[in-house]
Design a protein that fits this description.
The protein has about 725 residues and is mainly beta. The chain has 5 helices and 41 strands. Helices cover about 5% and strands about 55% of the residues. The radius of gyration is 26 Å and the shape is globular. The termini are far apart.
Amino acid sequence: MKKLASKGLLMSALICGNVLWGGTAVQAEEIDEYDLDTMVVTATRTAQENIKVPAQVNVITAEDIKKRNVLTITDALKSIPGLYDARVGGMSNTANGIQLRGFDEESVLVLYDGMPMNDGYTAKVAWSAISIDNVERIEVVQGAASSLYGGRAVGGVINIISKDSDKDTAHVYANYGSDNTWKRGVNFTKKLDDKWSLGFGYENRRTDGYDRKPVFLYDSKAETTHANTELATGANSTIRNDGRPVQIIGTPGKQASKDDNFNFKLKHKFNDKQSLTYKYSRDKFKSFSNDAKTYMRDSSGNPIYKGYIQLPNGKYLDFNESDFTDSINYKKVDIHALSYQDDINNIKFNVGLTNIKDNGYSSGSDLAGEGSGTKRIYPTKAYKVDFQKVWDKEKHTIVTGFDIQKDTMDSYSYKLAKWSDRDSTIGFSTTTFGGTNLVEALFIQDQYKFTDAFNMTVGLRLDRYEKKDGYYKNKRIDEKSYTELSPKLALTYTPDDDTTYYVSYGHSFNQPTLYKLYSESTSTMANPYLKPETSDTLEIGLKKNLSEKAYMGISLYNTKTQDMLAYAQSPDPNKRWYINIDEAKRMGAEFDFKFKHDDKISSYLNVTMQNAKDDNDKRISSIPKRIVNLGLDYNYDKWSAYIEGQYSSDRLDDGDVGGKLYSEDPFFIANAGVSYKFMKNAVVSLAVRNLFDRDYWQWYKAPGRTWNVGVDFTF
């Protein structure tokens, strides 16, 4: 009865919303302020008006990115309904990621020019590999899309499309800000003749970073004796979010990074309807901590990095230089994509390789970096082939094709003579684990038009998933294959050009990552017997142009996941591993409102409410229950400005203590910016983030107030 009541309330809300605003038809071409009639392709693999697509789709353009003066792709995504960005480290971030409808990057497919950016190791995304200045548009589809895109598209699809090379352009830019942060580069495209065009881009990003985490010792590790000889004072006694007492003794220093990105594209047009494009991107990324700080002092007040602390209970805690060292992280990504576009026969064909090499870290125990250490490397490759054909008939739009993706991954460990120099290899330690995930799929979808107002979309995907070539602790793991059907059904009712009601059901199939199947560390052991997750999503929604100046979108969804992958205690009492649990549930509601006040001022507000629970009816605490984004934009003559805010509820687990070290408490931050077009082809801009200098944690400590100023020239 409760479920029926909930569905009844939802339908009432959607219908009342339409009646309240009069159900007035407005011509789509009048609604250009927010690109509400923008043609989008990601949701259905065919060009369709956004407002008529049976899913919530948000589009971010190059102009939006430029106006916000953002430094990373995920900064540009922050205001999307249903999206939570935990990449607090910004350009230096090597952990955390984004969530979409409560699903993390393992279950959100990210494409860049058709190539998957989810790596073959953890399915996390190498966001640094994408030059933000090379982005033409980003289409974000919320909700199940596995019937067209496969396993990773459980929570949605983020499709990043780079700029075309069909016209002559040149863009030179430089950006400088807090923590000695630089972003500078050049991007140009050239039409060589009627057949050939090329493009080239280079972007350099670097920052000194900020202190994002402390060095601390657990009180529970105290001993009745001590090994070091120097008694130290200056520790800060506190407790962690989990209630455990700790002693903060310093920081490993600021998390700095260096990043160089290069992209190249070459396009050949056979005619106005057929073309072949090759795109290549390379990114070389490195992050590291510098200027470690100690709070500890000897009896003369001198700072020390080795000694012992005496606790009030009389026990001792030893500390050493190794406590203050942090790993050096590095990644090199090569992306090759070859795309054939045939608008005469409605054919698209993509083939490519995402090669993530030198993906790993080096570590040691001395702050100078001169001592010996260890290097770990996790090279991964993703081979991708994707073909689709569209038949557009009077009442049917049929999309069919095939999709093949092969992810491979290995792990190597080396000994280093000088741990700060990853090239100082003195010995090969071991090949610890690795394996292959192979997915071969066929898909078909039919958008059938019953009448001008009623449409039905039916899709089906057949996946064959095989995990093979796996090894763990030099032991070969048996191969295993699975076959899964992923259906999709969506019904839409469009009473006029500005209103769409829809209800949809989608089934998803998501294979475990190679990390979860074969990984090995001091705290985690592999589980090569994991099964794929399956999810079923039911969604109902409304998309409406309320007037020629206003848009509203509402959606409610319910996702049940079977055999969900969860982190749990392993048979080894000192380690944890991943297991399949029976079921998890995610329920949510999204409200999106955009309004054009006049020719100068526009605003937006979106609210996300979500609740996720595991099979024990326990909240999945990493998913915030509420997210609110709101903003105001001003554009007049040569000036543009914006102010925006984001609220997120807490991510505290049961028993966590708020307001303490690592406590992921609720937070609200505000950002603002202004830009001025001082020449015909030149703009100067200023952006301030975390305007009110709020303190909060997203595993790592968030930066305080930061600013950056930029100038760019377009020719």
